[in-house]
Design goal:
The protein is α+β, with helices and mostly antiparallel strands and 487 residues long. It has three domains: 20-220, BirA Bifunctional Protein, domain 2, CATH 3.30.930; 224-304; 307-343 and 387-471, no CATH class. It contains 14 helices and eight strands. The protein has a six-stranded mixed sheet with strand order 2-4-5-3-1-6. A two-stranded antiparallel sheet has the order 7-8. β7 (414-417) and β8 form a beta hairpin. α10 (306-359) runs antiparallel to α13 (437-460). The radius of gyration is 46 Å and the shape is elongated.
Length: 487
């Protein structure tokens, strides 16, 4: 391990500390994070200051996740707070950080082996993440620029779902510098914490010096680059006049490019939304698979109790059928009572007509009137007789259809699927059941539910027992065998 002698005078507090390690952190959107990730992993075109002949010396300690994965992690943490609105497309899903060194600190860090450097960077990255209550998701070391430095990637939402853009204030940023210096000093003695901006300003440093010194410290030979940049700037200013005519064309192209970018962003947002929807659908499918597996296990458990459950459900079937027949008998009794009431009314009318005949026998006109009324009453009586016969026929038809429908449910010709009844060729037609449907529906539902639970047990019976079970079902309509019990 190497320590570097300081060439820095302690009295000059205006300058930044050349022995310092520093970290710069900032939040970025999904688009900004994707761009930074491409830079960290050297994907695509790179800035001119990158020496591609040295890029093989870069090291990926933790590969930063793709932008879509980082956004998903940020949304998971954000959803802990039950937000009302969806996450914006430009929300700060990540925090990107750069770990750099002063001139002397860079020499001290360069004296470490690669394994020691990686351990120091990872320890520092995790400590900074813990300080922010988040997680380190990526760490890359760049050695193909003017000065070696590390790039860290952190989730932009802390473990409680709060965006770091709200919590990463001055105090936390200062704590980042403290943790970094403490860890680097352990691995490379001689590395210190950078001087605070307020201390340097108080010592007489200009504001510009506090803004740009840290950038110069990131690159050992940056002053040479600054001179080259100044020369390039002078050359660029000389070319400004020549580029005047091309400015408008460039602006038009830039506007078209911006429009294209906006269109691509809109398509990207739509694709992200569809991806989220598909992810949610996959989640529901996984829950459904789990539910079906649980149902299968429950079915195996019930199979072990087949005999006991079979007897209990048969008894329940008898009870349900008894309830259905009792309901039909009640309706029949109600109809009979109505007919009896009308017959009593007819008798009362006849008695009254007879009394009127006796009292008004002497008046011929009154007699004709009474005779006319008597004929009307007789016609009503005939109508009542016809209605009584029709009611009897309706009752018989209702019983026949109820028996046929019940049998159809058990034989699978009348099924309840997704809340709708489907009839086969041996089931009563909708027109036959329509007049009695409100009365039959409760009983049929009980029979359908009962049969849904029993059918598997009946199908599992030996063939002889299963045939005996179905032979017990009514196959003829009531009335065809008057001596059959219950009809």
């Amino acid at each position: 391990m190497t320590t570097v002698a300081s060439t820095f005078t302690a009295d000059d507090q205006r300058l930044s500390n050349p022995r310092a390690a520093m970290v710069h952190m900032e939040t970025c959107s999904k688009r900004g994070y994707a761009s930074q990730r491409a830079h960290d992993l050297r994907n695509g075109p790179q800035p001119s200051y990158v020496d591609v002949t040295r890029s093989h010396r870069n090291r990926v300690l933790i590969e930063p996740p793709p932008a879509q994965e980082m956004r998903r992690l940020a949304e998971e943490r954000r959803n802990q707070r039950n937000p009302v609105r969806a996450m914006k497309s430009n929300a700060g899903i990540a925090v990107i950080g750069i770990i750099g060194f002063g001139v002397e600190a860079a020499k001290a860090f360069a004296g470490l082996g690669h394994d020691q450097q990686d351990a120091a960077l990872l320890e520092a990255g995790h400590a900074i993440a813990a300080e922010a209550n988040t997680t380190l998701e990526g760490m890359v070391w760049h050695d193909d620029e003017t000065s070696g430095h590390g790039h860290g990637s952190f989730c932009g939402y802390d473990l409680d779902g709060t965006p770091l853009s709200e919590t990463m204030k001055r105090g936390m940023l200062a704590a980042f510098q403290d943790r970094l210096a403490e860890i680097m000093a352990v691995h490379a003695p001689g590395i210190e914490r950078g001087r605070r901006k307020s201390d340097r300003l108080a010592a007489g440093a200009s504001y510009a010096e506090t803004l740009h010194k840290t950038v110069r410290e990131l690159h050992q030979s940056l002053p040479l680059e600054l001179d080259a940049q100044r020369q390039e700037l002078e050359e660029a200013r000389a070319r400004v006049a020549e580029m005047g005519e091309r400015a408008e064309s460039a602006r038009a192209k830039a506007a078209a490019a911006e429009a294209q970018i906006e269109a691509l962003e809109a398509r990207l947002a739509a694709n992200e939304k569809r991806l989220d929807e598909r992810t949610e659908e996959l989640g529901w499918l996984a829950l459904e698979v789990a539910r079906l597996e649980a149902g299968q296990a429950e079915g195996l458990r019930l199979e072990a109790e087949r005999e006991e459950e079979h007897n209990r459900r048969l008894k329940a079937r008898e009870v349900e059928l008894g309830k259905a027949m009792a309901e039909i008998n009640r309706l029949k009794a109600s109809r009979c009572a109505e007919i009896q009431r009308r017959w009593d009314a007819r008798r009362s009318c006849r008695d009254r007509a007879s009394r009127l005949d006796k009292r008004e026998a002497s008046a011929e006109v009154r007699a004709h009137q009474v005779a006319f009324r008597s004929e009307a009453l007789q016609q009503q009586a005939k109508n009542l007789d016809q209605r009584s016969k029709a009611v009897d026929a309706e009752i018989v038809s209702a019983v026949q259809i109820a028996v046929k429908a019940t049998t159809a449910v058990i034989r699978g010709d009348l099924t309840l699927t997704d809340g709708k009844w489907q009839g086969g060729k041996n089931a009563p037609s909708p027109d036959q059941m329509k007049p009695f449907w409100p009365l039959m529906l409760p009983a049929l539902r009980h029979v359908a539910v009962w049969w849904a639970g029993v059918k598997g047990r009946v199908d599992a019976l030996p063939e002889q027992e299963r045939n005996a079970f179905f032979e017990k079902l009514p196959t003829e309509e009531p009335g065809e065998e008057d001596d059959r019990p219950g009809f």
